[in-house]
């Protein structure tokens, strides 16, 4: 069976000489990250399991320590590597109205019954997530992923319903 992995952050650099690493991650994910017992790092074409021994947070990043990695020399090989969890693990921590980015990319976007484009990416501006919507005339518009604008998400039918307020889609 093929495991589907979801990226949860990136090892930015080492932290100190005891094998700790600086972890970059999406805003407001501290609670999720602090519950993780294991993560995967992609090396070449394989995913290597790493056990999390502790994680703490600074205003700028997370500081993560893995079991069995106790020196600068051991952690440095992971610098700039993405960390992953299995998709099923990521889903356990999703709130009712949260989605994995992979689920949203490719969905058709509708305003009423009219198809207005499709999602080609998801980003975050610090205040909210943004859907990058490629409109029918091939422009990319950023749509705030907030309840007032994104009225519904239907993964099964691959459809997002929005309130296309004036000037939203170019």
What structural keywords apply?
single chain, 170 residues, mainly beta, Elongation Factor Tu (Ef-tu), domain 3, SH3 type barrels, 2 domains, six-stranded antiparallel barrel, six-stranded mixed beta sheet, 4 helices, elongated
Brief characterization of the structure:
With 170 residues, the protein is mainly β. Helices cover 11% and strands 47% of the residues.
Note down, in words, how this protein is organized:
- With 170 residues, the chain is mainly beta.
- The chain folds into 2 domains: 5-92, RimM (Elongation Factor Tu (Ef-tu), domain 3, Beta Barrel), CATH 2.40.30; 101-162, PRC-barrel domain (SH3 type barrels).
- It contains 4 helices and 12 strands.
- It has helices spanning 30-34, 72-75, 87-92, 101-104, and strands spanning 5-15, 20-24, 38-43, 46-57, 62-66, 82-86, 108-111, 114-124, 129-135, 140-144, 150-154, 159-162.
- The strands form 2 sheets. A 6-stranded antiparallel β-barrel has the order 1-2-5-4-3-6. Strands 10-9-8-7-12-11 form a 6-stranded mixed β-sheet, with no helix packed on it.
- The longest helix is centred in the middle third of the chain and has 6 residues, at 87-92.
- The radius of gyration is 19 Å and the shape is elongated.
- The protein starts with a strand and ends in an 8-residue tail after the last strand.
């Amino acid at each position: 069976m093929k495991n589907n992995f979801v990226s949860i952050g990136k090892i930015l650099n080492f932290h100190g000489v005891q094998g700790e690493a600086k972890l970059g991650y999406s805003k407001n994910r501290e609670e999720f990250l602090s519950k993780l017992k294991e993560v995967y790092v992609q090396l070449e074409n394989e995913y290597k399991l790493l056990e999390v021994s502790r994680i703490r947070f600074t205003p700028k990043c997370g500081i993560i320590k893995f079991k069995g990695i106790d020196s600068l020399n051991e952690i440095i090989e992971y610098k700039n590597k993405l960390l992953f969890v299995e998709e099923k693990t990521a889903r356990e921590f999703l709130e009712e109205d949260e989605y994995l980015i992979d689920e949203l990319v490719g969905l058709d976007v509708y305003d009423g019954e009219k198809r207005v484009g499709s999602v080609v990416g998801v980003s975050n501006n610090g205040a909210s997530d943004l859907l990058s919507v490629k409109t029918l005339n091939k422009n990319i518009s950023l749509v705030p992923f907030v309840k007032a604008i994104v009225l519904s998400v239907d993964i099964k039918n691959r459809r997002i319903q929005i309130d296309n307020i004036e000037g939203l889609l170019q």
